[in-house]
Amino acid sequence: MTTPLDPAAVIAEFIDRVSPYNPTPDADPVAVLGVRTAFGEDVFTVSDHVIRAMCRALESYRDPEDRGNCAKCGGLHLDENLHCRDCGQLHGILGQVIAEHARRVAADSGPSPSSSSDDPHR
């Protein structure tokens, strides 16, 4: 079970981490952020330095599930094996390499000639 995130606590920790690096610590706040969740409400007044850091952090975030778009249908639902859950296509050159490898492994794992019943070592 994953522990639920408390967004207000995460924002407060972010502000605490970034604030010490503010080149103008006495500057007036430039934004007020209000957060209301199941955990409660909180309001933060933040400096230009903090709000810029927050914006950069949000702009640079990439979802771990984002594996690009399917080359065939343009869908956003590629699984960890680059298989599109929307159209079933394996994605791109890497998808083709994975598919070819899977076919070779499947072909190699077929019954071997030494598994016949006339094998003297059985």
UniProtKB/TrEMBL annotation:
This is Uncharacterized protein. It comes from Actinoplanes campanulatus. The lineage of its organism: Bacteria, Bacillati, Actinomycetota, Actinomycetes, Micromonosporales.
